[in-house]
Write a structure and sequence with these properties.
Blueprint lengths: L16 H5 L1 H7 L5 E4 L3 H17 L13 H18 L7 E4 L7
Parallel strand pairs: 1-2
Length: 107
């Protein structure tokens, strides 16, 4: 798993495509780890992602990833698929995962 040797002294990772795509492998590699699913409102996430893409385009970015094309329909499907996948994987392990939403308390 390519990201593991790069962790070094770090104890947490977030907002990385490699974490999103490989959370099962990370869970296997780090069996006592905990995962937080950030459940940001879909519409605000789409707006934010679109602004990010527009900024990359305006800067003339040489980045070759998924952040140079606006595709709200594909992003929406990806958001739903990822959330379903994470929730299904951790369904029987509530102590190992926690959904988090900005502005909400644990009450």
């Amino acid at each position: 798993f390519a990201i593991v040797p790069k962790l070094g002294r770090y104890r947490a990772l977030f907002d990385l495509r490699s974490v999103e795509e490989n959370f099962v492998a990370l869970d296997t590699a780090f069996p006592d780890s905990r995962f937080i699913l950030h459940t940001r409102d879909l519409d605000s996430w789409l707006d934010s992602r679109e602004r990010h893409v527009q900024t990359n385009i305006a800067r003339g970015s040489t980045y070759r990833g998924r952040w140079l094309t606006v595709d709200r329909e594909a992003w929406t499907e990806h958001w739903h698929t990822q959330h379903r996948s994470v929730r299904a994987y951790f369904r029987d392990r509530p102590d190992d995962s926690r959904p988090a939403r900005p502005g909400l308390s644990d009450r």
